[in-house]
């Protein structure tokens, strides 16, 4: 379903997602990463997927982009294993940190290389063309679906709807948590006075979606307390989105999924101190 959604967003997103997934997974397999524990469940491929989608979005379809996605997916695979070694003693997952690291390096260093940056796509926020904080019903319902689609850099509401369908197929709780978390992110941005067009594009929802999914049912056991904890995490991720975007403003404000990674690491690291929360499984 996710692959269908990516191709619905544009053939290049589906194709480069596949390229990143295959290269990252093959890299892990060649280097001897455990097949049943890591490779078969897809844990070695998803960062490569995101690298492929992000780089084709920022750099367009060119042979140089193909080469960079291959190199970036290999780097993401190595970073995944390195971070696993560093984080496992603290019972923390790598999340999408390898993707964030690789893509941040690419967009920060890209301008120094003319053959890389020549095809760089201008990606200003939607609010650059439609400023204002007045929320409309269209921004509201499309922003809720786009908050799910933006996990893979997709800002078409129907693509987000396909992603949501895939999440509900995975489990009704998963789909519901994603939908509610996206709504939380959108409402947080609206209450704080974010630009309405950016909210409608889902830019304040996707990090909340990932954080909500991580903290409710995936890494923390389902309970009323963990539901509230996940909701607070989703609000925090939305609030951090603008801060991270401003830090990266000099390179186009590419927030990526840094807010999700940072918030989820902090919230999971704190769990052993909280007697009313327990890890899943």
Task: Write a structural description.
Keywords: Cell membrane, Membrane, Transmembrane, Transmembrane helix. It is a multi-pass membrane protein. The chain crosses the membrane at residues 39-59, 66-86, 92-113, 158-191, 203-222, 229-250, 256-275. The structure is a single chain. This protein has 281 residues and is mainly alpha-helical. It folds into two domains: 1-121, no CATH class; 128-280, Ammonium transporter AmtB like domains (Ammonium transporter fold). The protein is built from 14 helices and no strands. It has helices spanning 2-9, 11-30, 35-39, 46-59, 63-87, 97-109, 114-117, 137-149, 157-170, 172-192, 196-200, 206-218, 224-247, 258-269. The longest helix is centred in the first third of the chain and has 25 residues, at 63-87.
Which key features would you list for this structure?
281 residues, mainly alpha, Ammonium transporter fold, 14 helices, globular, Urea_transporter, Ammonium/urea_transptr, transmembrane, cell membrane
Distance between the termini: 26 Å
What is the number of helical segments per DSSP (H or I, 4+ residues)? 14
Question: What gross morphology would you assign?
Answer: globular
Quote the CATH topology of the largest domain: Ammonium transporter fold
Can you write the helix and strand succession as a string? HHHHHHHHHHHHHH
Q: In total, how many domains does the architecture comprise?
A: 2
Q: What percent of residues are in strands?
A: under 5%
What ranges have pLDDT less than 50 throughout 5 or more consecutive residues? Answer: none
Structural class designation: mainly alpha
CATH superfamily of the largest domain: Ammonium transporter AmtB like domains
In CATH, the architecture of the largest domain is Orthogonal Bundle
Q: What is the total tally of β strands? A: 0
Pfam families: UT
GO molecular function: urea transmembrane transporter activity
Subcellular location: Cell membrane
Transmembrane segments: 39-59, 66-86, 92-113, 158-191, 203-222, 229-250, 256-275
């Amino acid at each position: 379903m996710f692959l269908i959604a990516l191709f619905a967003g544009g053939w290049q997103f589906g194709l480069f997602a596949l390229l990143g997934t295959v290269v990252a997974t093959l890299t892990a397999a060649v280097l001897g990463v455990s097949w049943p524990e890591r490779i078969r469940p897809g844990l070695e491929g998803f960062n490569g997927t995101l690298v492929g989608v992000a780089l084709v979005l920022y750099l367009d379809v060119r042979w140089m982009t193909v080469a960079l996605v291959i190199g970036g997916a290999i780097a993401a695979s190595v970073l995944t294993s390195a971070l696993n070694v560093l984080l496992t003693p603290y019972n923390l997952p790598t999340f999408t940190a390898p993707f964030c690291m690789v893509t941040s390096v690419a967009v920060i260093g890209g301008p120094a290389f003319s053959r890389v940056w020549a095809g760089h796509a201008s990606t200003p926020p939607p609010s650059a063309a439609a400023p204002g904080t007045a929320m409309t019903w269209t921004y509201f319902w499309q922003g809720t679906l786009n908050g799910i689609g933006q996990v893979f850099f997709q800002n078409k509401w129907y693509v987000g709807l396909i992603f949501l369908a895939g999440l509900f197929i995975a489990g009704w709780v998963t789909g519901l948590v994603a939908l509610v978390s996206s709504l939380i992110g959108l409402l947080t941005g609206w209450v704080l006075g974010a630009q309405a067009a950016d909210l409608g594009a889902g830019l304040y929802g996707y990090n909340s979606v990932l954080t909500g999914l991580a903290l409710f049912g995936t890494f923390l056991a389902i309970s009323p307390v963990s539901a509230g904890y996940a909701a607070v995490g989703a609000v925090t991720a939305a609030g951090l989105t603008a801060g991270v975007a401003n830090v990266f403003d000099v390179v186009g404000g590419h927030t990526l999924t840094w807010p999700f990674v940072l918030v989820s690491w902090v919230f999971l690291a704190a769990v052993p101190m909280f007697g009313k929360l327990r890890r899943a499984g």
